[in-house]
Amino acid sequence: MTVNFQNISAASQFPGFKNYTIVSLTGSIPGQTLAAGHFAQTTISTPLNNTNAVSQVQLQYSGVNSNYFVIPGFQQYNPSGTYQIESLVYYVSGNINILTLVSNQTAGSITIPTITLNAVAFLFVSPV
Amino acid sequence: MSLTNPQDLLIAVPTFPIDRIIGTTSGSFSVSAPSASPGFTTNTATFVTGFGDTCYFQGIFSTDGGTTWNDLGVYQPDLTSPAAPVLQTVTCEAYMNGGTLTLVGKNWYDLVHSTSSAYTIQYKVFFIAKNTQGSLTPLTSSQKIFYSSAYNFQKIDFVGSFAVSTSASTTVSHNLGYVPKVRAWFVPTNATGGIEGIYTVPAGSMMTLDWFNASVQVNATNVVFSIVLDNSSPTVGIPGTMEYRVYLDS
Question: Half-sphere exposure (CA, 13 Å, Cβ side) for B178?
Fold first, then answer.
């Protein structure tokens, strides 16, 4: 049966994303001096069973940006020309993990500010 | 608004639209172990939807036989050597070109530990009617009941699209007073290898942002879409169309 989706906003045959659960995580990378070629890292983690679920993670780098980044698995952010922030979101062993690295992008020493990580993870039941 | 006479209601149409899932698919394929040079291998699997058109999609994949699942585009890092974390390991990404979904497995050589492995990638993908979806025949489902008012479905506040600037970010106001959830998909004007440049996706394909160096930043008032960078243009954005949805909290 052909259906014209311009005419349908919701229908019993076509589900949307079922809101499932929400968790919050927080952590920080302390302000520090990084030598050339060096980086600082931290992993924040909490139990979250994502079996048969898709997720969306919002991550804030408080101290450098008040916005929340919608993380598509990997996020690279350059708040200045001297350092780069990278975050990976992944699930393993029943936990959600967010690895964040702050790397020196210069040929000399730099000082990075304290970066507080505030994350919210949403799970949606997969229909498959 | 209270219901003063429920006996007059046979059915209540939702006030806010929801995402309409128009089909699902699952399967598996393998990606071989890479050697140190060129340092990666790729392999693909395809699924023809029969829609004759692109649509949105989301999915999950597993490389350990279904024990661990991650969203498409995720890399699970190897942190066994803390001083040298391995960020690029193995992942599965996807795109739609016309009515065909292509899953792309990417497997990287571990330069830190001088190792590599072959993987069997299991995937589950579901297709979502896009903002401009016209007429198509949805995929059949074995489930008898898909939609139930007992489920709390995500409700769409509004949708939109715009031609992505190659030089400046684009701000979309939502004025919800809180940080909403947002989904976005990108349609490149030209063929692109994504930020990694090891697999070329045809122009006009529907892609998720994990392929690129791009960001979606959200606050209580706005959604800010960055320029989109790929391997051909690591500092200047590439042209294309961003399609997005902003959801209500519920």
Answer: 7
